Amino acid sequence: MNRMLLDRYQRPLRNLRLSVTDRCNLRCSYCMPEPDYVWLPREDILQFEEIETLVDVFTNLGVDKVRLTGGEPLLRRDLPELIHRLASRRAIRDLAMTTNGVLLASQASALRDAGLHRLTVSLDSLRPDRFQHLTRFDELARVLDGIAAAAPLFPGLKLDTVVIRGVNDDEMVDLLEFGRRHGAEVRFIEYMDVGGATHWSMPRVVSRREMLATLSAHYGPIAPVVEESSAPADRYTLPDGTTFGIISSTTEPFCESCDRSRLTADGLWYLCLYAAHGTDLRRPLRAGVGAEPLAQLIR
Length: 299
Ligand code: SAM
Ligand code: SF4
Fold this sequence. Notes:
The protein is α/β, with parallel strands linked by helices. It is 29% helix and 18% strand. It has helices at residues 48-60, 79-87, 104-114, 128-135, 140-150, 172-182, 208-219, 282-286, 291-298, and strands at 15-19, 65-69, 94-99, 118-122, 158-163, 185-190, 223-224, 234-237, 243-247, 260-263, 268-270, 279-280. Strand 10 (260-263) and strand 11 form a beta hairpin. Helix 1 crosses helix 9, helix 2 runs parallel beside helix 3 and helix 3 (104-114) runs parallel beside helix 5 (140-150). The mean pLDDT is 95.
């Protein structure tokens, strides 16, 4: 392995978000608010072999955690095959995926069998009308079926909820109770002004401080979990021992300990969710450039 790559703030490059498709079967208002999108042409999307080549370059530079994402990753054809190939790499200590759960019920066991270590399902509301309003599709029942199918197969399942004022901020307790019933840890995410979030505004952000106030008004004293972690979520414990997380990217950003970078489905590499410019890795890859010059480009 090459020397672990550190950036100019001495942060290691350990965590790679790998987008396997730009397509999605939902249109969450905070992410893809328009009814129609022009998707990337098929030939622009990295093939599995190309993904593997790039992942090997990244793991040689210190990446040991890979999270598959999208768009909606379960729309990528033969995804379990890619998972199988990545899971066989010893350099990847942690192979995870974030999904909206719509297609999860029928795929959960294939994902598990392929070697996926950990799973996160996004769930912003338990109310069908709200879910449909938020995502433009009446798919809550399928998401809930997906969670029920995946929870026994993926112990430590996580449920990610973007909390938006006036939209779902009154469901935090219901979501925690739902997570508890499924043995899943809920993580509340502050609404971020990223990418497609065209309707973002600061008054719609529910801060970590407010989330904790709401939850402690209901449950009683909440204690922070003390742990060394580069995970974006700060974890907390309710009086009965139930744990949950808060990702306070907007009001209390964790940039100084962030070790994430992102590779888009068409091979652009971004150092931050807020980054305006990425580095094109597909072009040199397809021009036949070898692993060392690709590593040099990343360095
Ligand atoms: N489609 C999959 C899903 O929804 O889980 C994976 C991709 S999605 C972009 C990954 C996560 O980003 C989801 O949990 C989603 O809620 C979150 N996200 C998207 N836009 C966001 C925003 N503006 N603020 C906070 N989180 C956001
Ligand atoms: Fe699709 Fe996920 Fe974005 Fe929602 S958050 S539109 S499910 S990619």
